[in-house]
């Protein structure tokens, strides 16, 4: 479903609907120093989803839907939070940021040639295919360039509602973090690749979960285990998150805790619970699950997340 669904040409780039001037059209321009770049790409979206979205004539040929617009806006908002947190503390005085639209990405057929993969490509397969496509476009920063100045986080918004192997998305080494792997001469890139399965979050949860998972998967590329440990006391990024009681029956969950804050069971918080490391006892704040019936999702980053991302960007050389 990731690569084969949908028809139609590459979407082209749309900028007019978005109000934030910090967004650009995603074309390759000479990179400036001290720019944190996040480029967001839609994967193919089935036509019925695009039509349901009420697209106009301009939009009908693209894979940017309202879902993707909301995810993009959420990521943009999250990055703005990090930079404003840092600047209030006189950190990152020079750093600029851009959240850009990339052209839609259709994964190479080779990435899904195995029968099982055609139905449900794994996270690894999706990320490999994503990387191949970006390499073909010459969109990955080469190792030889200054990793700090040029590193980009590439976020693929995948539409694969039934791909349980992909889950809600993720990152994998060696492209799991911005600026982490450049310069070692093994052909790696300082860019980070990450995927959020917005088809799944839309199908099984809600738009607030879609927003938070888009942010969540970008945040993973902006925190290292070492920094997570320094700030949160464990090497798990998820523990930087919060699940805060709003009232007796309601918990509000921040982006990095989304899909991890509920009980580890089907329908616990999000319909699909995240896998991998986390410990509610070690969360930056977790007010417990007793009597919780409602889950809310806020795009507001926890203090621990803000500090960890700021610290990580400092460790890779931003100032
Ligand atoms: Zn995660």
Calculate the mean pLDDT score and round it: 81
Domains, number = 2
Compute the separation of the termini in Å: 41 Å
Strand content: 5-15%
Ligand types: zinc ion
Largest sheet: 6 strands, mixed
How much helix, percentage-wise, in residues? Answer: 25-40%
Structural class: alpha/beta
The radius of gyration computed from the alpha-carbon positions, rounded to a whole number of angstroms, is 19 Å
Residue ranges: pLDDT <50 for 5 or more in a row?
Answer: 1-32
Q: In total, how many beta strands?
A: 10
Summed up, the helix count is: 9
Q: Tell me the strand order in the biggest sheet.
A: 1-3-2-4-6-5
Oligomer: single chain
User: Judging from the principal axes of the Cα atoms, what is the shape?
Assistant: globular
Structural overview:
With 319 residues, the protein is an alpha/beta fold. It folds into 2 domains: 1-222, no CATH class; 225-313, no CATH class. It has helices at residues 47-52, 66-88, 115-119, 123-136, 147-150, 198-204, 207-220, 225-232, 303-315, and strands at 23-24, 35-42, 96-101, 152-158, 169-170, 192-197, 242-247, 250-253, 285-286, 294-297. The strands form 2 sheets. It has a 6-stranded mixed sheet with strand order 1-3-2-4-6-5, with helices on both faces. It has a 4-stranded mixed sheet with strand order 9-7-8-10. α2 (66-88) crosses α9 (303-315). The protein is globular, with a radius of gyration of 19 Å. It binds zinc ion. Zinc ion (ZN) binds at residues 216, 220, 238, 274.
């Amino acid at each position: 479903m990731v690569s084969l669904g949908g028809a139609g040409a590459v979407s082209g780039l749309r900028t007019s609907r978005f109000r934030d001037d910090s967004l650009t059209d995603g074309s390759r321009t000479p990179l400036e120093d001290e720019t944190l770049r996040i480029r967001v790409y839609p994967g193919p979206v089935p036509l019925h989803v695009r039509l349901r979205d009420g697209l106009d004539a301009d939009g009908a040929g693209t894979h940017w839907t309202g879902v993707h617009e909301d995810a993009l806006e959420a990521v943009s908002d999250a990055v703005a939070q990090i930079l404003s947190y840092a600047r209030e503390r006189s950190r990152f005085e020079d750093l600029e940021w851009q959240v850009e639209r990339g052209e839609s990405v259709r994964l190479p057929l080779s990435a899904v040639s195995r029968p099982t993969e055609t139905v449900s490509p794994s996270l690894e397969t999706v990320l490999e295919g994503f990387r191949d496509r970006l390499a073909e476009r010459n969109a990955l920063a080469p190792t030889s360039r200054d990793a700090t100045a040029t590193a980009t986080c590439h976020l693929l918004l995948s539409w694969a509602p039934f791909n349980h192997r992909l889950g809600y998305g993720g990152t994998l080494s060696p492209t799991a973090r911005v600026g982490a792997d450049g310069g070692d001469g093994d052909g790696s890139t300082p860019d980070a690749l990450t995927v959020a399965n917005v088809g799944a979050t839309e199908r099984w949860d809600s738009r607030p979960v879609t927003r938070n998972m888009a942010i969540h998967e970008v945040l993973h590329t902006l925190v290292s285990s070492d920094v997570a440990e320094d700030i949160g006391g464990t090497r798990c990024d998820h523990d930087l998150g919060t699940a805060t009681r709003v009232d007796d029956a309601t918990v509000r969950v921040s982006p990095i805790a989304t899909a991890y804050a509920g009980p580890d069971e089907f329908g616990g918080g999000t319909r699909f619970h995240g896998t991998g490391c986390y410990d509610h006892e070690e969360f930056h704040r977790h007010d417990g699950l007793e009597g919780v019936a409602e889950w809310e999702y806020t795009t507001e980053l926890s203090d621990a997340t803000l500090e960890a991302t700021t610290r990580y960007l400092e460790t890779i050389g931003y100032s």
